[in-house]
Amino acid sequence: MAGPHDWADGSAVIDFATEHLAPSVIGFLGESYGSGISQLVAAHDDRVAAVVALSTWGNLATSLYDHDTRHLAAVKALLALTGGPVESKFDEANQKVLADFLADRNLDRVVEWGRLRAPESYLHLTNDNETPTFFSNTWHEGLFAVNQLLETFDGLDVPKRLNLWIGDHAAPEGPALIGTEPGRDNLPMAEAYAWLDHHLKGERNGVEEWEQVCGEVMFTYVTEPVLDPGTGEPTGENRIVEEAFRESRADWSRVTTGVEVLGLTGDGAGGTDGRLLPGARPRTPRRSPAGAARSSRASTPRPPSWTRS
What we know:
- The protein is an alpha/beta fold.
- It folds into two domains: about 1-60 and about 120-215 and about 250-265, Alpha/Beta hydrolase fold, catalytic domain (Rossmann fold); about 60-115, no CATH class.
- The protein has eleven helices and 15 strands.
- The protein has helices spanning about 5-20, 35-45, 60-65, 70-80, 85-90, 90-105, 105-115, 125-130, 145-155, 175-180, 185-200, and strands spanning about 25-30, 50-55, 65, 70, 135-140, 160-165, 215, 220-225, 235-240, 245-250, 260-265, 275-280, 285, 295, 295-300.
- Strands 1-2-5-6-7-10 form a six-stranded mixed sheet, with helices on both faces. A three-stranded antiparallel sheet has the order 12-11-15, with no helix packed on it.
- Helix 2 (about 35-45) crosses helix 8 (about 125-130).
- The longest helix has 17 residues, at about 5-20.
């Protein structure tokens, strides 16, 4: 799963395309799992000239386990999404890692497994290949929290772009990918294709003027009530009729102008949420056996102009 065999499959596809189709240039565009694979193949195969990674991860290890906390909901959601019994989807080695994760044991091995599958682990290869890389994620990402992607993005020393949208995993670009809104413009996908047109075909389409980071500002959109088609009465839901305002910045450091430290309480048993307490006193991070610094603190970036209501 997203390991060396999958990277090899990606290169095999390139081999086949090169032999039978003779493309002049090759780019990868992927969504979710495919976006992580796209990054990993590009890092290990310099024939990939550009990458678009939608609703993606940068570090699978910290996506699954960070600040001494397992991301159980994300893993269970991914298992449900792919369907079928675990035994039919994963080999024995991957089944063992999954079992350890769910049982809260051998987490150092789980982290090592995730790092092997983390594009962040191969930034030096991506930078050596000079692969232009485009990320499109959401502020409310429920599977691959955006924090881990920011570290990967900061480590890229190539032409790069990070778009952040209001919504959850795959929601902004999903309708355009699966065709549920035919005839309707989809800005996330339009900008993804523009990236490929610029870096693969050499089009001067405005991408060369883009700043590195662009994000939607929460609560700047306009909504209207959804009416029941039979009764004409409000259903209690709203639809967006005017998209949110977007702000661009030269890089991520211009976005995060301050950091607030919040303490997560341990009273979220039984499936309920714990509480976030402001002004938590940070403790000294301890070292895991794998050598990675870990802390119980939750550090939340606070871009003031992007979180106004």
